[in-house]
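User: MATE family efflux transporter. Structure?
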Amino acid sequence: MSKNFDIIHGNPSQCLFAMVLPMMAAMFLNMAYNLVDSLWIGNLLGESAYAALTAATPILLLLNSIAMGATNGVAILLSQAIGAGETRRTRTILFTSFILSIVFSLGMTGLLEGMVSPLLRFLQVPSELYEMTCLYLRIYLIGYGAVYLYCYFAAVLRSFGDTVFQMLAMLVCTVLNGALDPLLIHGFGLQGAAAATVLSQGICLGFMVCYLRKKALFSFHAADWSGKELGTICLKSLPAAFQQSIPAISTSVLTAIVSGFGVTALAAYGVAGKLELLLFYPAMSFQMVLTTIVGQCIGAGRRDRAWVYCKTALLWGGGLLIILSCGVVGLAHPLSELFVDSKAVAEVVAGYFQVVSVGYLFNMETNCFLGAVNGMGHPGHSMLCMVLYYLIIRIPLACLLSSAGLNGIWAAVLCSHVAAVVTACLLARGLASRKKSPI
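Assistant: Predicted structure:
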């Protein structure tokens, strides 16, 4: 087993950027992948179909968040084992988590197929959009196993210091989806877009499996199964999965609140959600990379280097988000019209970004702190932190301020970002002080 570079002894800034930049590129390609669907659906099928996609988005976000969070929990354990040089335990974690991933993804697929209708009723999807949304989700769920296993293998590669291939795999997936979308949408409407997504995800997973076989970083052996490690993996993966899912749960509730303001408001909230990916994905990249890096540093007993990585991420990540936020806020109106040709929708989108604006900088800093907390081996603490500001602060405040209109809901989002960065900073410093770290 080998890594592409030495996280423990190499130059901290170089190692951080060597992992973050490909990870960000992969995230932006993932954004492009999602935007392709949105652009084709909005321009070929119109506002109603786009609103149906928006109604389905909270469930899609929840599914993807569970996959990313649970596999990030595996990355915590795997990174610490690699950093400590525990080859035997590394193999055990790999095989046990792989079997768990297969069983869990299949179970989630079956469970969600049976819960689509109740979930759409909970989201208060307008009756005129219900059938389109339901069919889209049922087709999408067919490919969820491929999505989950892709996230699993991407997390494993990150643990070994390889984030480049995730970027290449997403490039292939995005190109495939972009080519298949118009063909299948013309033939089958919104359901054709879902079918294009399933096909491209399956091919992308196959591409990754071929790469792993050629790279030969590790191999699976039945003798490496461990019931003890299964329990440890669950203890890390379940909180990490719930942590990653909390924003999606919050988005689901906010979607239900916004839907009460009509189809135009719902479509606008969907457009804003797509544009927000430009600001959220860099923050998620820093969090995932810091989880791996801090995990390896903790495993090797180098807490001093973990702090250097954390400070570097806070500085450069914050600067990046200031630039990106200014661009999105300033261009919100014309960017919105790329998705849906509606001035009413564009006005709502522009108003959203004007209110939330500085919250995206706070979100980047929050993700850096939580990445460090996860790397220290405390995903449960991160989960509780996110429960506080997403579920305890954002949702009740949005319900309360919705009486003031859409801007009241947007103000609740901003307030939750402020609470998030304060809480995450205090949490990271508190845990580090408990371990007698210089953080």
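The two ends are 31 Å apart (CA to CA). The chain has one domain: 12-434.
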